[in-house]
Design brief:
Keywords: Cell projection, Cilium, Flagellum. It comes from Pyruvatibacter mobilis. It holds the Pfam family CTP_transf_3. The chain has 232 residues and is α/β, with parallel strands linked by helices. Helix content is 31%, strand content 23%. Strands 5-4-1-6-10-7-11 form a seven-stranded mixed β-sheet, with helices on both faces. A two-stranded antiparallel sheet has the order 2-3. It is globular, with a radius of gyration of 19 Å.
């Protein structure tokens, strides 16, 4: 089975400027995702897609097998990620003359994941044969119990009404926060589907300490601390 790993990183980060090439645990942030893909040992190709030359160079130095220049119109604040992933897949397939069966997208701002997480998510998608697998961690708040929405009149209520009385959080259905770390698609679902969600979408659960998504300076410091404690 031919498998492709994609790692997409824009150059115009505003929350943490230059974060994708900023050093964390001794290496550029994006290098950790390339390393995770290599350590997973599953992929026939590992592609870094970016609109920034320094990110592409950091990907190359970390061991990515292909570098893809991301079109400017796919690198704006308003641009969705799915078109950029599809573009990356098409470019690599054209270069290598191979049609990949599964595509695994690794978020570059998730340096605390492990290669085992990637293997687990890919195995879930392969074993179940589902359209896609996404990753997440158990949510701290539940829409059935303690997550509320504000109504137009300023009052609040539960985001999702439970089927019966829920007096303990443990009695509510399990809910998860998407961590964005790993997405595994069957190729047709990615290239021909209309979005992220399918009737058979499954979730691969990761612990909170491996689910850090760097979006702020505090996130960066927290991830650096966790990685230093783990000896990563």
């Amino acid at each position: 089975m031919a498998r492709l790993a994609t790692i997409l990183a824009r150059g115009g980060s505003k929350g943490v400027p230059g974060k994708n090439v900023r050093l964390i645990a001794g290496a550029p942030l994006i290098a950790h995702s390339v390393r995770h893909a290599l350590e997973a040992g599953l992929f026939d190709a590992i592609a870094v897609s970016s609109d920034a030359d320094d990110i592409l160079e950091a990907g190359r130095a970390a061991g990515a097998t292909h570098l893809v220049e991301r079109p400017a119109q796919m690198a704006t604040d308003e641009a969705g990620k799915l078109p950029a992933i599809r573009h990356c897949v098409a470019e690599v397939e054209a270069l290598v003359g191979t049609r990949f069966e599964t595509i695994t997208d690794l978020q570059p701002t998730s340096p605390t994941r492990l290669a085992d997480d990637i293997r687990g998510a890919v195995d879930m998608q392969t074993r179940l044969g589902v359209s896609n697998v996404i990753s997440g961690s158990e949510a701290k708040s539940s829409p059935y119990f303690n997550l509320v929405e504000e109504r137009a009149d300023g009052s609040v209520g539960l985001s999702k009404a439970p089927a019966g009385d829920v007096v303990r959080r443990q009695d509510a259905p399990r809910c998860f926060d998407l961590n964005g770390s790993i997405y595994v698609w069957r190729r047709d679902a990615l290239m021909e589907g209309e979005g992220l969600w399918f009737a058979d979408t499954h979730l691969y659960e990761m612990p909170p300490e491996r689910s850090v998504d760097i979006d702020t300076e505090l996130d960066f410091r927290f991830a650096d601390f966790l990685m230093s404690q783990a000896g990563d």
